[in-house]
C-alpha cells in the first residue's frame, strides 16, 4: 500500500459521534427513493400507487436510457408517487410488507465468475438496478453505458464529520469484498484503485488482490473521491473515471453470488440531536423516524449525509441512496445579545475571530446558523487552505459566475464536485455557497455538452 498525506483541509470534531457497534434495526414500515439523488438523469416512474413490488423491482427508469433503472429496496406496495410543481417527480414511497421477497437474477459459482465477459457483467448490473451504484467523473452522475472508464475507484474511507468508519464495517467480509472487486476488474482495461485510510486494519482492504491499494492520511477532505482521483489518476478533458463506495462493492458481490439485489445499508446515526448514536444495519431509503427510534423533533435539523455536504430531509424524510450517515443537529435562529463583542469561548471559527479557535482539537457543538449574511466576495487565500486539489478556487468560482465555460474547464472544474468545496463554504467570510456555485458550473457544462 502506498501512502499519500494530505496537508490542506480541516477536521471538524462535532459532538455526538456514533459508537462503533453495529445494531440491527427492524425493517421500517416504509421506504422512499428520491430521484434527485441521481444527477443528470430524467426519470419516469414505472409503477403507480397500489402496485405490489419485490426487492429489486424497478421503480424508475431513465427516459433516455430505459435500461438504467432504480429499484425498490423493500417488498410491499407503492403508497405514493409524489410530484411537485410542473409535475416534477419528487419521491416514490413503498409501504413494506415485512417479507423482503426479492426478484431473482442469475447467480454464479467462483469458476463461472472468472469466465464472465464485460457485457455479461454490465447486463446483470443493469437488469438488477445495481448499475445505479456506479457513478462517473466528470459530473458525478450514474455511469454512462457508452463509455469505458480509464480506471475505477473504490472509496473505502470518509473524513467527513461523524462519518461511518468503513474499515470497521468491512471487518470479516473479506471474501465478499474480494468477489466484488474481481467483478469490477472486468469493467475496465485500466486499474481498479481501492482508497482507504492509511491506518486501515481490515484484511478486506489490506489484503485485497488484483487491485491497487492507496492509503490516505491527513485532514478532511482526504477521504473525498475527488482527492483520491486527483492524486492517483487525474481526470483530464475527455477522460472518464468510475467510482463507487465500499458497501456497493459488497452489493455487487451479493448480486452475482446470491442472485439478488441486496438493499442492506449500514448507517452511522450521529449528532447531538440523537439519543442512541450507533451504527444501524437497515435498508437503502430508510425513513428518518426509524433511524432515530421514532423520536423526531421540529427543533432539529435532520441531514442525510454529512453536515458539510449532505441534504436536509426533515423528520419525515428518507435516507439518500448514496448516504451512509444520518446527522442530527440543533436548528439555529437564536440571537445572541452583543455576540460580536463576546470572546466566543463557546463559538467556533476557522479564523482567529473567537478565543475558541486557539483550541482547534476540542469537540464542538454546532447548529445551523451561518452567523452572518451573504456579502461581497473579496480575493483572499482563505479557500486555498481547505482544497487539496491543484485548483485556484477563487478564480474558478469567478469563471463559473461569469459563465466562462472554457476558463472553468482550464481551471480544473471537471475533476471537482461541490463536496470538495464544502469546507470553503463553511469558512467563507462572505457566507457564499462555494460548492453550490461549482455545482452550477458543472450543470451548465453538462447541459451545453
Short description, anyone?
With 449 residues, the protein is of the alpha/beta class. It is 22% helix and 21% strand. Helix 4 crosses helix 7 and helix 9 packs across helix 12.
What does this structure look like?
With 449 residues, the protein is α/β, with parallel strands linked by helices. 22% of the residues lie in helices and 21% in strands. It contains 12 helices and 20 strands. The strands form 4 sheets. The chain has a 7-stranded mixed β-sheet with strand order 1-14-13-12-15-10-11. Helix 9 crosses helix 12 (434-448). The longest helix has 15 residues, at 434-448. It starts with a strand and ends with a helix. The mean pLDDT is 94.
Keywords for this entry:
six-stranded mixed beta sheet, seven-stranded mixed beta sheet, 12 helices, 449 residues, globular, alpha/beta, 20 strands
Q: Average pLDDT across residues?
A: 94
Range of strand content? 15-25%
* Quantity of strands, as a count: 20
Q: Tell me the major beta sheet.
A: 7 strands, mixed
Strand order of the largest sheet: 1-14-13-12-15-10-11
**3D shape:** globular
What's the N-to-C terminus distance?
38 Å
Helix coverage percent of residues? 10-25%
CA radius of gyration is 22 Å
> Multimeric state of these chains?
single chain
Structural class: alpha/beta
Q: Treating each run of at least 4 consecutive H or I residues as one helix, how many helices?
A: 12
**Low-confidence spans:** none
How is the topology of this model organized?
Layout lengths: L1 E4 L16 E3 L5 E4 L9 E3 L6 E2 L4 E5 L6 E3 L4 E8 L5 E8 L13 H6 L2 H11 L6 E3 L3 E2 L8 E6 L9 H4 L4 H11 L6 E7 L5 H4 L5 E6 L7 H8 L8 E5 H13 L5 E7 L8 E5 L4 H4 L8 E5 L6 E2 L12 E6 L62 H9 L3 H6 L11 H6 L6 H15 L1
Helix pairs in contact: 4-7, 9-12
